[in-house]
Amino acid sequence: MSTRLAPTISRDTEFYWNGLREHKLLIQRCSGCGKLRHPPRPMCPQCRSLSWEAIESSGEGTVYSYVMPHQPRFPFFDYPYIVVLVELSEGVRVLSNLRDIDPDDVTVGMPVEVFYETFEGASGDLVLHQFRPKGLQ
């Protein structure tokens, strides 16, 4: 288990981090217009409603974009590592890491699925979503 920087958790994002601890990838759905949104925020950018509910994502999606950072090197990452923008099947995009694949084999549009990993955080254990090519277990 490697150490990671702890996220800043607010009233608006607490549901999201609690969901990850339960191995659920939660996204917001506006109660006013039904639009899905991520990252979490208090107001719907579409209709400006403050009412929303959390729905569980299937955790399946495709690689929308990716990058492999090289500098600065952080001690809590194994290099090379892949930062990926995943377009979930629900239509919203999430930023994460892509694991269990050679960096040369990553392609835009490839199907991926979520899994959860526990890291040591500054304030205890931290559960984060990670992605891997679909079909790996």
Automatic annotation (TrEMBL):
Transmembrane feature ranges: none
Annotated ChsH2 rubredoxin-like zinc ribbon domain residues: 17-53
Q: Which InterPro entries match?
A: ChsH2_C, ChsH2_Znr, NA-bd_OB-fold, Thioester_dehydratase-like
Give the protein's recorded name: Nucleic acid-binding protein
ChsH2 C-terminal OB-fold domain location: 56-114
Q: Name one Pfam family in it.
A: zf-ChsH2
**What is the protein's species of origin?**
Mycobacterium bourgelatii
